[in-house]
Design goal:
- There is one protein chain.
- By secondary structure, this protein is mainly beta.
- The protein has a domain at about 15-20 and about 45-100: 10 Kd Chaperonin, Protein Cpn10, Chain O.
- The protein is built from no helices and ten strands.
- The relative contact order is 0.28.
């Protein structure tokens, strides 16, 4: 059975981006030691899927749009967690997105 895409009723403002965090499973070292996800939960970068993108912000009168697009997977440093209709989302500023994964 296919999973239906849920319509999101959140539109980020300015250069903010709405993400859904992608949980990274526990990491196993080369020697077989399992490092639980919770060990690095508060540090480092996180992975997320872009769900919505704001229109951008004006810098010196010109609209600067975020470079990410809906559907891309990105690495981000931090963001604000929100809950809407029981779902957890992350809102980040475009400056907090570190990379786009291909």
């Amino acid at each position: 059975m296919e999973k239906k895409e849920k319509k999101i009723s959140i539109l980020p403002l300015l250069d903010r981006v709405l993400l859904q965090e992608i949980n990274v499973k526990d990491t196993k070292t080369a020697s077989g030691i399992i490092i639980p996800e919770s060990v690095n939960a508060e540090k480092g970068t996180k992975k997320g899927k872009v769900l919505a993108v704001g229109e951008g912000k004006r810098i010196d009168g010109e609209l600067q749009k975020p470079v990410v697009k809906v559907g891309q997977t990105v690495l981000y440093s931090w963001g604000d967690e929100i809950r809407v209709d029981g779902e957890k989302y992350i809102i980040v500023g475009a400056d907090n997105i570190l990379a786009i994964l291909h």
